[in-house]
Amino acid sequence: MEVGLRVVRGPDWMWGDQDGGEGNVGTVVHLGGDGNVPDDTVLVYWDTGKQANYRAGYSGKYDLRVFDSAQTGLKHIHVTCDGCKEVPLIGTRWKCADCQNYDLCSTCFVSDVHDKHHAFLRIEQPQGNGIPVGKRTNFVKRQSKGFFPGAKVSRGRDWKWAEQDGGNGRIGTLSEITAWNGVDRSGAKIVWGMLRNNTYRAGHQGSVDLKCTTPANGPSYYRECLAKVGEKRQRAANRLKIGERVSVCLEAEVLKAMSQGHGGWIDSMAQCVGKIGKISKIDDDGDVQISYGLQSWVFHPDVVTKMPSFQSGDQVRVFNDKQLVQNLQQGHGGWNESMEVALGKQALEDMSGGEATSRRGETTPESPAKELHDLLQALLMGAVLKGGSAGDPGDRLVNASSSGNLQDVREILEANPDKIDHKRAGKTALHVACHQGRAEIAKYLTSKGRQQRHQGRTGLFCNASRSLW
Ligand SMILES: [Zn+2]
Ligand SMILES: [Zn+2]
Protein backbone atom coordinates (compact mmCIF):
# COMPACT_ATOMS: atom_id res chain seq x y z
CA MET A 1 0.00 0.00 0.00
CA GLU A 2 1.49 3.32 -1.06
CA VAL A 3 0.55 6.96 -1.35
CA GLY A 4 -0.67 7.84 -4.81
CA LEU A 5 -3.10 4.95 -5.11
CA ARG A 6 -6.22 6.06 -6.92
CA VAL A 7 -9.23 4.65 -5.09
CA VAL A 8 -13.02 4.30 -5.17
CA ARG A 9 -15.38 3.45 -2.33
CA GLY A 10 -15.11 -0.14 -1.11
CA PRO A 11 -17.27 -2.90 0.37
CA ASP A 12 -17.57 -1.48 3.90
CA TRP A 13 -18.23 2.10 2.83
CA MET A 14 -20.61 3.86 5.23
CA TRP A 15 -19.78 7.51 4.65
CA GLY A 16 -22.63 8.70 2.48
CA ASP A 17 -21.55 10.80 -0.48
CA GLN A 18 -18.30 12.05 1.05
CA ASP A 19 -16.62 10.79 -2.13
CA GLY A 20 -19.09 12.67 -4.32
CA GLY A 21 -21.12 9.51 -5.01
CA GLU A 22 -20.17 5.97 -5.99
CA GLY A 23 -17.62 5.83 -8.78
CA ASN A 24 -15.87 9.07 -7.83
CA VAL A 25 -12.14 8.59 -7.63
CA GLY A 26 -9.78 9.88 -4.95
CA THR A 27 -6.09 9.70 -4.11
CA VAL A 28 -4.41 8.16 -1.04
CA VAL A 29 -2.34 11.11 0.20
CA HIS A 30 -1.20 9.80 3.58
CA LEU A 31 -0.80 6.39 5.22
CA GLY A 32 -1.81 5.67 8.80
CA GLY A 33 0.54 4.49 11.48
CA ASP A 34 2.68 7.59 12.05
CA GLY A 35 1.09 8.61 15.32
CA ASN A 36 -1.33 11.15 13.86
CA VAL A 37 -3.40 8.70 11.88
CA PRO A 38 -4.26 5.19 13.18
CA ASP A 39 -2.69 2.06 11.74
CA ASP A 40 -4.61 0.45 8.90
CA THR A 41 -6.28 3.68 7.88
CA VAL A 42 -5.45 6.07 5.04
CA LEU A 43 -6.12 9.69 4.28
CA VAL A 44 -7.88 10.20 0.94
CA TYR A 45 -8.32 13.39 -1.04
CA TRP A 46 -11.29 12.93 -3.33
CA ASP A 47 -11.13 14.47 -6.80
CA THR A 48 -14.20 16.43 -5.78
CA GLY A 49 -12.09 18.17 -3.10
CA LYS A 50 -13.11 16.55 0.18
CA GLN A 51 -10.55 14.87 2.39
CA ALA A 52 -11.09 12.24 5.10
CA ASN A 53 -9.60 9.24 6.83
CA TYR A 54 -10.79 5.75 5.89
CA ARG A 55 -10.39 2.18 7.11
CA ALA A 56 -7.90 0.09 5.16
CA GLY A 57 -8.12 -3.08 7.22
CA TYR A 58 -8.85 -1.23 10.46
CA SER A 59 -11.19 -3.45 12.56
CA GLY A 60 -11.31 -5.74 9.55
CA LYS A 61 -13.15 -3.11 7.47
CA TYR A 62 -12.32 -1.91 3.98
CA ASP A 63 -13.77 1.43 2.94
CA LEU A 64 -11.81 1.64 -0.32
CA ARG A 65 -10.82 -0.28 -3.42
CA VAL A 66 -7.81 0.29 -5.69
CA PHE A 67 -8.98 1.92 -8.92
CA ASP A 68 -5.51 2.52 -10.36
CA SER A 69 -1.99 2.09 -9.00
CA ALA A 70 0.04 3.62 -11.84
CA GLN A 71 0.34 6.85 -9.82
CA THR A 72 2.48 5.08 -7.20
CA GLY A 73 5.03 4.35 -9.95
CA LEU A 74 4.05 0.67 -10.27
CA LYS A 75 5.25 -1.04 -13.47
CA HIS A 76 5.65 -4.64 -14.58
CA ILE A 77 8.94 -4.27 -16.42
CA HIS A 78 9.03 -7.32 -18.69
CA VAL A 79 5.30 -7.70 -19.16
CA THR A 80 3.45 -6.59 -22.31
CA CYS A 81 -0.27 -5.89 -22.39
CA ASP A 82 -1.61 -8.29 -25.01
CA GLY A 83 -4.43 -5.84 -25.69
CA CYS A 84 -2.77 -2.48 -26.39
CA LYS A 85 0.85 -3.78 -26.55
CA GLU A 86 1.90 -1.38 -23.78
CA VAL A 87 5.26 -2.39 -22.34
CA PRO A 88 6.12 -2.24 -19.56
CA LEU A 89 2.61 -2.85 -18.32
CA ILE A 90 1.66 0.00 -16.00
CA GLY A 91 -0.40 -0.34 -12.82
CA THR A 92 -2.44 -3.42 -12.04
CA ARG A 93 -1.71 -6.43 -14.22
CA TRP A 94 -4.58 -8.76 -15.19
CA LYS A 95 -3.49 -12.25 -16.16
CA CYS A 96 -5.79 -14.69 -17.94
CA ALA A 97 -6.10 -17.87 -15.90
CA ASP A 98 -7.35 -19.85 -18.90
CA CYS A 99 -4.64 -18.94 -21.40
CA GLN A 100 -0.89 -19.34 -21.40
CA ASN A 101 0.93 -16.08 -20.96
CA TYR A 102 -1.86 -13.61 -21.66
CA ASP A 103 -1.90 -10.28 -19.78
CA LEU A 104 -3.96 -7.12 -19.90
CA CYS A 105 -3.53 -3.64 -18.48
CA SER A 106 -6.39 -2.14 -16.47
CA THR A 107 -7.60 -0.08 -19.42
CA CYS A 108 -7.87 -3.13 -21.66
CA PHE A 109 -9.35 -5.25 -18.84
CA VAL A 110 -12.25 -2.87 -18.29
CA SER A 111 -12.63 -2.36 -22.05
CA ASP A 112 -13.47 -6.08 -22.29
CA VAL A 113 -10.51 -6.99 -24.45
CA HIS A 114 -10.17 -10.82 -24.65
CA ASP A 115 -12.86 -13.44 -23.94
CA LYS A 116 -15.08 -12.20 -21.11
CA HIS A 117 -15.77 -15.79 -20.08
CA HIS A 118 -12.14 -16.38 -19.20
CA ALA A 119 -11.21 -16.11 -15.53
CA PHE A 120 -8.50 -13.64 -14.57
CA LEU A 121 -5.93 -13.17 -11.86
CA ARG A 122 -5.17 -9.71 -10.51
CA ILE A 123 -1.49 -9.00 -9.90
CA GLU A 124 -0.70 -5.87 -7.90
CA GLN A 125 3.04 -6.14 -7.40
CA PRO A 126 5.73 -7.10 -9.95
CA GLN A 127 6.82 -10.05 -7.82
CA GLY A 128 3.35 -10.58 -6.45
CA ASN A 129 1.00 -13.44 -6.95
CA GLY A 130 -2.30 -13.40 -8.73
CA ILE A 131 -5.53 -13.08 -6.83
CA PRO A 132 -8.35 -14.91 -8.66
CA VAL A 133 -11.12 -12.48 -9.60
CA GLY A 134 -13.32 -14.74 -11.71
CA LYS A 135 -14.64 -13.90 -15.14
CA ARG A 136 -15.94 -10.53 -16.20
CA THR A 137 -19.32 -11.93 -17.24
CA ASN A 138 -20.03 -12.36 -13.51
CA PHE A 139 -20.00 -8.64 -12.87
CA VAL A 140 -21.60 -5.40 -13.96
CA LYS A 141 -19.53 -2.32 -14.60
CA ARG A 142 -19.65 0.98 -12.70
CA GLN A 143 -19.00 4.43 -14.10
CA SER A 144 -15.90 6.16 -12.76
CA LYS A 145 -15.79 9.96 -12.34
CA GLY A 146 -13.08 12.45 -11.51
CA PHE A 147 -9.89 13.67 -13.18
CA PHE A 148 -10.63 12.55 -16.72
CA PRO A 149 -10.60 14.50 -19.98
CA GLY A 150 -13.33 17.13 -19.97
CA ALA A 151 -13.40 17.63 -16.20
CA LYS A 152 -13.63 21.20 -14.93
CA VAL A 153 -11.00 21.87 -12.26
CA SER A 154 -9.65 24.51 -9.92
CA ARG A 155 -6.77 24.67 -7.40
CA GLY A 156 -6.61 21.73 -5.00
CA ARG A 157 -4.89 20.50 -1.87
CA ASP A 158 -1.22 20.67 -2.91
CA TRP A 159 -1.32 23.68 -5.26
CA LYS A 160 2.06 25.43 -5.27
CA TRP A 161 2.00 27.23 -8.62
CA ALA A 162 1.20 30.76 -7.55
CA GLU A 163 -1.12 32.51 -10.00
CA GLN A 164 -0.46 30.18 -12.93
CA ASP A 165 -4.19 29.49 -13.11
CA GLY A 166 -4.96 33.18 -13.41
CA GLY A 167 -6.01 33.52 -9.76
CA ASN A 168 -7.60 31.38 -7.08
CA GLY A 169 -11.05 30.18 -8.05
CA ARG A 170 -10.40 30.12 -11.79
CA ILE A 171 -11.80 27.13 -13.59
CA GLY A 172 -9.78 25.17 -16.13
CA THR A 173 -10.51 22.18 -18.33
CA LEU A 174 -8.63 18.90 -18.12
CA SER A 175 -7.51 17.98 -21.63
CA GLU A 176 -5.36 14.93 -21.01
CA ILE A 177 -4.11 12.55 -18.32
CA THR A 178 -0.37 12.24 -18.70
CA ALA A 179 2.87 11.35 -16.92
CA TRP A 180 4.37 13.57 -14.26
CA ASN A 181 8.07 13.27 -13.64
CA GLY A 182 8.18 9.86 -15.26
CA VAL A 183 5.23 8.43 -13.35
CA ASP A 184 2.46 7.40 -15.73
CA ARG A 185 -1.08 8.74 -15.42
CA SER A 186 -0.10 10.84 -12.40
CA GLY A 187 -0.41 14.26 -14.06
CA ALA A 188 -3.14 16.23 -15.81
CA LYS A 189 -2.89 18.79 -18.60
CA ILE A 190 -5.10 21.75 -17.82
CA VAL A 191 -6.18 24.55 -20.14
CA TRP A 192 -6.87 27.66 -18.04
CA GLY A 193 -7.84 29.99 -20.82
CA MET A 194 -6.97 30.76 -24.39
CA LEU A 195 -3.28 31.12 -23.66
CA ARG A 196 -2.43 29.28 -20.51
CA ASN A 197 -2.02 25.55 -20.25
CA ASN A 198 0.15 23.47 -17.99
CA THR A 199 0.55 20.04 -16.48
CA TYR A 200 -0.16 19.44 -12.77
CA ARG A 201 0.04 16.62 -10.30
CA ALA A 202 -3.16 14.57 -10.20
CA GLY A 203 -2.24 11.72 -7.89
CA HIS A 204 1.51 11.70 -8.45
CA GLN A 205 2.87 9.74 -5.46
CA GLY A 206 0.18 11.23 -3.28
CA SER A 207 0.24 14.84 -4.49
CA VAL A 208 -2.86 16.49 -5.93
CA ASP A 209 -2.70 20.08 -7.21
CA LEU A 210 -6.29 20.16 -8.43
CA LYS A 211 -9.86 19.46 -7.53
CA CYS A 212 -12.84 18.93 -9.79
CA THR A 213 -15.61 21.47 -9.84
CA THR A 214 -17.29 19.20 -12.39
CA PRO A 215 -15.91 15.66 -12.60
CA ALA A 216 -15.79 13.94 -15.99
CA ASN A 217 -16.68 10.35 -16.71
CA GLY A 218 -13.74 7.95 -16.90
CA PRO A 219 -13.69 4.29 -17.87
CA SER A 220 -16.30 1.96 -16.38
CA TYR A 221 -14.79 -0.57 -13.97
CA TYR A 222 -15.54 -3.98 -12.49
CA ARG A 223 -15.95 -3.06 -8.84
CA GLU A 224 -15.77 -6.60 -7.45
CA CYS A 225 -12.52 -7.32 -9.27
CA LEU A 226 -10.65 -4.46 -7.61
CA ALA A 227 -8.38 -4.99 -4.59
CA LYS A 228 -9.52 -3.67 -1.24
CA VAL A 229 -7.06 -1.07 0.02
CA GLY A 230 -5.08 -2.58 2.91
CA GLU A 231 -6.51 -6.02 2.29
CA LYS A 232 -3.32 -7.97 1.93
CA ARG A 233 -2.01 -7.93 5.44
CA GLN A 234 -5.26 -8.98 7.07
CA ARG A 235 -6.85 -11.38 4.69
CA ALA A 236 -5.55 -14.76 5.78
CA ALA A 237 -5.58 -13.95 9.46
CA ASN A 238 -9.23 -12.92 9.33
CA ARG A 239 -10.54 -15.68 7.19
CA LEU A 240 -8.64 -18.80 8.16
CA LYS A 241 -7.79 -20.46 11.45
CA ILE A 242 -5.36 -23.17 12.47
CA GLY A 243 -7.11 -26.53 12.68
CA GLU A 244 -9.75 -25.69 10.07
CA ARG A 245 -10.58 -28.18 7.34
CA VAL A 246 -9.76 -26.69 3.96
CA SER A 247 -9.25 -27.56 0.34
CA VAL A 248 -7.32 -26.20 -2.62
CA CYS A 249 -9.43 -26.34 -5.77
CA LEU A 250 -7.48 -24.59 -8.51
CA GLU A 251 -5.74 -26.06 -11.50
CA ALA A 252 -2.11 -26.96 -11.00
CA GLU A 253 -0.93 -24.31 -13.43
CA VAL A 254 -2.67 -21.51 -11.55
CA LEU A 255 -1.49 -22.87 -8.21
CA LYS A 256 2.04 -22.99 -9.49
CA ALA A 257 1.95 -19.35 -10.52
CA MET A 258 0.50 -18.36 -7.17
CA SER A 259 3.08 -20.29 -5.17
CA GLN A 260 6.00 -18.13 -6.28
CA GLY A 261 7.12 -16.33 -3.16
CA HIS A 262 4.50 -18.15 -1.09
CA GLY A 263 6.22 -21.39 -0.21
CA GLY A 264 7.22 -22.33 -3.75
CA TRP A 265 5.97 -25.18 -5.88
CA ILE A 266 6.93 -28.75 -6.63
CA ASP A 267 4.87 -30.89 -8.96
CA SER A 268 3.84 -33.41 -6.33
CA MET A 269 1.79 -30.64 -4.68
CA ALA A 270 -0.72 -31.17 -7.48
CA GLN A 271 -1.84 -34.33 -5.68
CA CYS A 272 -3.44 -32.12 -3.06
CA VAL A 273 -5.85 -30.49 -5.48
CA GLY A 274 -9.40 -31.20 -4.39
CA LYS A 275 -8.40 -33.07 -1.25
CA ILE A 276 -9.39 -31.99 2.19
CA GLY A 277 -6.58 -31.05 4.56
CA LYS A 278 -6.18 -29.27 7.84
CA ILE A 279 -4.46 -25.94 8.45
CA SER A 280 -1.43 -26.65 10.59
CA LYS A 281 0.19 -23.22 10.50
CA ILE A 282 -0.33 -19.65 9.22
CA ASP A 283 2.89 -17.69 8.91
CA ASP A 284 3.43 -13.96 9.35
CA ASP A 285 2.84 -13.23 5.68
CA GLY A 286 -0.45 -15.08 5.84
CA ASP A 287 0.77 -18.10 3.89
CA VAL A 288 -1.02 -21.24 4.95
CA GLN A 289 0.49 -24.61 5.72
CA ILE A 290 -1.96 -27.43 5.09
CA SER A 291 -1.46 -30.97 6.34
CA TYR A 292 -2.68 -33.85 4.23
CA GLY A 293 -2.05 -36.84 6.45
CA LEU A 294 1.70 -37.13 6.78
CA GLN A 295 2.51 -34.53 4.15
CA SER A 296 2.10 -30.81 4.43
CA TRP A 297 2.51 -27.99 1.94
CA VAL A 298 2.45 -24.21 2.06
CA PHE A 299 -0.09 -22.34 -0.08
CA HIS A 300 -1.02 -18.77 -0.86
CA PRO A 301 -4.01 -17.91 1.38
CA ASP A 302 -6.16 -16.96 -1.58
CA VAL A 303 -6.18 -20.44 -3.04
CA VAL A 304 -7.50 -21.96 0.16
CA THR A 305 -11.21 -22.76 0.39
CA LYS A 306 -12.81 -23.49 3.75
CA MET A 307 -14.89 -26.63 4.25
CA PRO A 308 -18.03 -25.55 6.07
CA SER A 309 -19.76 -28.18 8.18
CA PHE A 310 -22.73 -29.84 6.55
CA GLN A 311 -26.08 -29.00 8.04
CA SER A 312 -29.60 -30.18 7.51
CA GLY A 313 -31.31 -27.86 5.07
CA ASP A 314 -28.16 -26.84 3.21
CA GLN A 315 -28.54 -26.68 -0.53
CA VAL A 316 -26.27 -29.23 -2.15
CA ARG A 317 -25.24 -30.30 -5.63
CA VAL A 318 -23.22 -33.08 -7.18
CA PHE A 319 -20.07 -32.27 -9.08
CA ASN A 320 -19.53 -33.80 -12.50
CA ASP A 321 -15.81 -34.35 -12.24
CA LYS A 322 -15.00 -37.98 -11.70
CA GLN A 323 -11.29 -37.36 -11.33
CA LEU A 324 -11.82 -34.80 -8.61
CA VAL A 325 -14.22 -37.04 -6.72
CA GLN A 326 -11.81 -39.93 -7.00
CA ASN A 327 -9.08 -37.74 -5.56
CA LEU A 328 -11.35 -36.71 -2.73
CA GLN A 329 -12.23 -40.29 -2.01
CA GLN A 330 -8.66 -41.38 -1.39
CA GLY A 331 -8.44 -42.14 2.29
CA HIS A 332 -12.18 -41.56 2.73
CA GLY A 333 -13.67 -44.91 1.86
CA GLY A 334 -12.18 -45.06 -1.61
CA TRP A 335 -13.87 -44.98 -4.96
CA ASN A 336 -15.99 -47.60 -6.58
CA GLU A 337 -17.40 -47.35 -10.06
CA SER A 338 -20.97 -47.61 -8.82
CA MET A 339 -20.56 -44.16 -7.31
CA GLU A 340 -20.53 -42.75 -10.78
CA VAL A 341 -24.30 -42.85 -10.73
CA ALA A 342 -24.20 -40.01 -8.24
CA LEU A 343 -22.15 -37.81 -10.50
CA GLY A 344 -23.54 -35.59 -13.17
CA LYS A 345 -27.17 -36.06 -14.20
CA GLN A 346 -29.32 -33.02 -14.71
CA ALA A 347 -28.04 -31.45 -11.57
CA LEU A 348 -24.95 -30.30 -13.36
CA GLU A 349 -26.64 -28.09 -15.87
CA ASP A 350 -27.36 -25.46 -13.31
CA MET A 351 -23.75 -25.46 -12.22
CA SER A 352 -22.36 -24.38 -15.54
CA GLY A 353 -22.24 -20.73 -14.55
CA GLY A 354 -20.78 -20.95 -11.10
CA GLU A 355 -18.71 -24.04 -11.37
CA ALA A 356 -15.81 -22.69 -13.35
CA THR A 357 -15.50 -19.76 -11.01
CA SER A 358 -15.51 -21.91 -7.94
CA ARG A 359 -12.75 -24.05 -9.29
CA ARG A 360 -10.71 -20.97 -9.83
CA GLY A 361 -10.74 -20.19 -6.18
CA GLU A 362 -13.75 -18.08 -5.39
CA THR A 363 -13.89 -18.26 -1.65
CA THR A 364 -17.03 -16.34 -0.82
CA PRO A 365 -19.55 -18.12 1.41
CA GLU A 366 -21.95 -18.38 -1.53
CA SER A 367 -19.37 -20.16 -3.62
CA PRO A 368 -20.58 -23.31 -5.33
CA ALA A 369 -17.43 -24.93 -3.98
CA LYS A 370 -19.17 -25.01 -0.62
CA GLU A 371 -22.07 -26.97 -2.00
CA LEU A 372 -19.80 -29.32 -3.84
CA HIS A 373 -17.74 -30.23 -0.85
CA ASP A 374 -20.68 -30.38 1.50
CA LEU A 375 -22.33 -32.91 -0.69
CA LEU A 376 -19.22 -34.91 -1.20
CA GLN A 377 -18.75 -35.12 2.50
CA ALA A 378 -22.29 -36.19 3.15
CA LEU A 379 -22.76 -38.38 0.14
CA LEU A 380 -19.52 -40.07 -0.66
CA MET A 381 -17.36 -40.22 2.41
CA GLY A 382 -17.26 -43.08 4.81
CA ALA A 383 -17.33 -46.81 4.62
CA VAL A 384 -20.12 -49.07 3.49
CA LEU A 385 -22.75 -49.49 6.14
CA LYS A 386 -22.86 -52.76 7.97
CA GLY A 387 -25.03 -54.20 10.67
CA GLY A 388 -28.33 -55.79 11.58
CA SER A 389 -31.75 -54.77 10.45
CA ALA A 390 -33.89 -55.28 13.53
CA GLY A 391 -35.22 -52.44 15.61
CA ASP A 392 -35.79 -48.87 14.55
CA PRO A 393 -37.66 -48.57 11.23
CA GLY A 394 -35.39 -45.71 10.23
CA ASP A 395 -32.34 -47.92 10.58
CA ARG A 396 -34.09 -50.67 8.66
CA LEU A 397 -34.92 -48.22 5.89
CA VAL A 398 -31.27 -47.20 5.53
CA ASN A 399 -30.18 -50.81 5.56
CA ALA A 400 -32.75 -51.84 2.98
CA SER A 401 -31.58 -49.03 0.81
CA SER A 402 -27.98 -50.09 1.28
CA SER A 403 -28.66 -53.69 0.30
CA GLY A 404 -30.76 -52.67 -2.70
CA ASN A 405 -34.07 -54.08 -1.51
CA LEU A 406 -36.59 -51.76 -3.12
CA GLN A 407 -39.55 -53.76 -1.86
CA ASP A 408 -38.44 -53.35 1.76
CA VAL A 409 -37.73 -49.68 1.20
CA ARG A 410 -41.28 -49.16 -0.10
CA GLU A 411 -42.90 -51.04 2.74
CA ILE A 412 -40.90 -49.38 5.50
CA LEU A 413 -41.48 -45.97 4.06
CA GLU A 414 -45.23 -46.48 3.53
CA ALA A 415 -45.54 -47.42 7.18
CA ASN A 416 -43.11 -44.77 8.43
CA PRO A 417 -43.15 -41.78 6.07
CA ASP A 418 -41.46 -39.60 8.71
CA LYS A 419 -38.31 -41.75 8.49
CA ILE A 420 -37.39 -40.57 5.02
CA ASP A 421 -34.43 -38.54 6.20
CA HIS A 422 -33.58 -40.65 9.20
CA LYS A 423 -29.82 -41.01 9.52
CA ARG A 424 -27.92 -44.13 10.37
CA ALA A 425 -24.21 -43.56 10.94
CA GLY A 426 -24.73 -40.08 9.53
CA LYS A 427 -26.29 -41.27 6.26
CA THR A 428 -29.88 -41.11 5.03
CA ALA A 429 -31.40 -43.79 2.87
CA LEU A 430 -30.82 -41.59 -0.16
CA HIS A 431 -27.17 -41.03 0.68
CA VAL A 432 -26.68 -44.75 0.93
CA ALA A 433 -28.61 -45.46 -2.25
CA CYS A 434 -26.39 -43.06 -4.16
CA HIS A 435 -23.28 -44.34 -2.51
CA GLN A 436 -24.12 -47.91 -3.43
CA GLY A 437 -25.35 -47.07 -6.89
CA ARG A 438 -28.96 -48.09 -6.20
CA ALA A 439 -30.49 -45.92 -8.87
CA GLU A 440 -34.02 -47.37 -8.61
CA ILE A 441 -34.15 -46.81 -4.88
CA ALA A 442 -32.67 -43.35 -5.15
CA LYS A 443 -35.35 -42.43 -7.70
CA TYR A 444 -38.07 -43.83 -5.50
CA LEU A 445 -36.79 -41.97 -2.45
CA THR A 446 -36.52 -38.82 -4.50
CA SER A 447 -40.14 -39.02 -5.66
CA LYS A 448 -41.24 -39.66 -2.09
CA GLY A 449 -39.23 -36.73 -0.88
CA ARG A 450 -40.77 -34.53 -3.52
CA GLN A 451 -44.29 -35.50 -2.46
CA GLN A 452 -43.46 -34.70 1.12
CA ARG A 453 -41.96 -31.41 0.12
CA HIS A 454 -45.21 -30.51 -1.60
CA GLN A 455 -46.89 -31.28 1.68
CA GLY A 456 -44.77 -28.66 3.34
CA ARG A 457 -41.73 -30.55 4.48
CA THR A 458 -38.36 -28.96 4.03
CA GLY A 459 -34.85 -29.91 4.79
CA LEU A 460 -31.81 -31.73 3.67
CA PHE A 461 -33.49 -34.60 1.90
CA CYS A 462 -35.61 -32.48 -0.36
CA ASN A 463 -32.78 -30.19 -1.29
CA ALA A 464 -30.44 -33.03 -2.01
CA SER A 465 -32.96 -34.92 -4.07
CA ARG A 466 -33.95 -31.90 -6.10
CA SER A 467 -30.37 -31.40 -7.07
CA LEU A 468 -29.60 -35.00 -7.76
CA TRP A 469 -32.15 -35.98 -10.33
ZN1 LIG B 1 -3.63 -2.64 -22.53
ZN1 LIG C 1 -7.82 -16.22 -21.89
Give the gist of this structure:
This protein has helices at 106-110, 231-239, 252-259, 322-329, 352-359, 368-380, 393-403, 406-415, 429-435, 439-454, 460-468, and strands at residues 6-9, 26-31, 41-46, 51-55, 64-68, 75-76, 89-90, 93-96, 103-105, 119-123, 131-135, 141-146, 152-155, 172-180, 183-191, 197-201, 210-214, 216-222, 245-248, 276-282, 288-292, 295-299, 304-306. With 469 residues, the chain is of the alpha+beta class. β15 (183-191) and β16 form a beta hairpin.
Distance between the termini: 49 Å
Provide the β-strand percentage band: 15-25%
| Ligand list | zinc ion
Shape: elongated
Explain this structure.
The chain has helices spanning 106-110, 231-239, 252-259, 322-329, 352-359, 368-380, 393-403, 406-415, 429-435, 439-454, 460-468; strands at residues 6-9, 26-31, 41-46, 51-55, 64-68, 75-76, 89-90, 93-96, 103-105, 119-123, 131-135, 141-146, 152-155, 172-180, 183-191, 197-201, 210-214, 216-222, 245-248, 276-282, 288-292, 295-299, 304-306. The chain is an alpha+beta fold. The radius of gyration is 28 Å and the shape is elongated. It binds zinc ion (2 copies). The site of one zinc ion has 8 residues, from strand 9 and helix 1. It is an enzyme of class 2 (transferase). It comes from Desmophyllum pertusum. Residues 76-128 form the ZZ-type domain. ANK repeats lie at residues 425-449. It is found in: Cytoplasm.
